[in-house]
Specification:
- The chain is an alpha+beta fold and 128 residues long.
- It has a single domain, classed as 2,3-Dihydroxybiphenyl 1,2-Dioxygenase, domain 1 (Roll).
- It is built from three helices and eight strands, in the order E-H-E-H-E-E-E-H-E-E-E.
- Strands 2-3-4-1-5-8-7-6 form an eight-stranded mixed sheet.
- Strand 7 and strand 8 form a beta hairpin.
- The termini are close together.
- This is VOC family protein.
């Protein structure tokens, strides 16, 4: 069970998700499968399950070149909007924020005051 305020997911964003899937699969033994909810919403998102794990703990997102490639950690929070407000109050910035939808949970990309990118999300059902 994940605790609030802990790193609960990671994401690799790339213009070439096939190459990323092959690379990380061969380096770490990670298995990636297409996220059907994301596919239904028109996204190419792949869920990563580490060797020996029973559930995914990360993903590969196809950017189609719309944003720079990156790898980020994502923290489970009770309320994405409230946490974004706290980030801004403390000198960070919100890069993008999305409400929960059929394709995924409420989430955001934010930067700390030094400019480091990280993610926030509320797990489906609001329980970590």
């Amino acid at each position: 069970m994940t605790m609030w305020g802990t790193v609960a997911w990671f994401e690799i964003a790339t213009a070439d998700p096939d190459a990323a899937q092959t690379f990380y699969g061969e380096v770490f033994g990670w298995r990636a499968v297409k996220d059907e909810k994301g596919a239904a919403a028109g996204m190419d998102y792949r869920l990563i399950t580490a060797a020996g794990a029973t559930a995914p703990t990360g993903g590969i997102m196809a950017t189609d070149g719309a944003m720079p490639g990156h790898a980020v950690f994502t923290v489970a929070v009770r309320d994405v909007a409230q946490t974004c407000a706290t980030v801004e109050r403390l000198g960070g910035t919100v890069v993008a924020r999305h409400e929960a939808s059929e394709s995924g949970p409420a989430n955001a990309y934010v930067r700390d005051p030094a400019g480091n990118l990280f993610g926030l999300f509320t797990p489906p059902g609001g329980a970590a």
